[in-house]
Specification:
154 residues; mainly alpha; 71% helix; VanZ-like; membrane; Glycopeptide antibiotics resistance protein
């Protein structure tokens, strides 16, 4: 679990670096966006910068949901699945709100409620997916009776 916490710290550092960097126009981000749009168009998927930015905000917080769920589930084993997912999504909302509020003071950054909503959605989807996988794996664990859980008489 220690390596997972380390991975989460590295992920958070990357998110904070990306979201707190002043004036993205001075970086390779605008070129990356154009290159991505062109690459997608070559395979028949037509998107614009607005869609790409929205999708990026959602995708950026998927790892938050996945890693956060696994870490919280390990620390809070008595919590139910719904509580775990909502707690991680709430933490994603709090982090996104902090980022967007901080961006108000950073030259060249634009803070929007849409970013908060999409980041929170990414955390929620990531946490729900991680919980679905955890739940499926728990059902496949063989109990001491030697029969898979779904075959144990109730």
């Amino acid at each position: 679990m220690r390596w997972l916490r380390g991975l989460f710290v590295v992920y958070l550092a990357a998110v904070l670096t990306l979201t707190m960097w002043p004036q993205l126009e001075d970086t390779s981000v605008p070129g990356w966006a154009d290159a991505t749009i062109e690459a997608l168009a070559r395979v028949g998927i037509h998107v614009d910068v607005t869609f790409l930015e929205a999708a990026s905000n959602l995708v950026m917080f998927l790892p938050f949901g996945v890693l956060g769920l696994v870490l919280v589930a390990h620390a809070r084993r008595s919590w139910g699945a719904g509580t775990l997912v909502l707690a991680v999504a709430g933490a994603g909302f709090a982090l996104s709100t902090l980022i967007e509020t901080t961006q108000l003071a950073i030259p060249g950054r634009v803070s929007t409620l849409q970013d908060v909503a999409l980041n929170t959605g990414g955390a929620l989807v990531g946490a729900a997916a991680a919980e679905a996988v955890r739940s499926a794996l728990r059902r496949r664990v063989v109990p001491p009776s030697g029969r898979p859980d779904d075959e144990v008489p109730t």
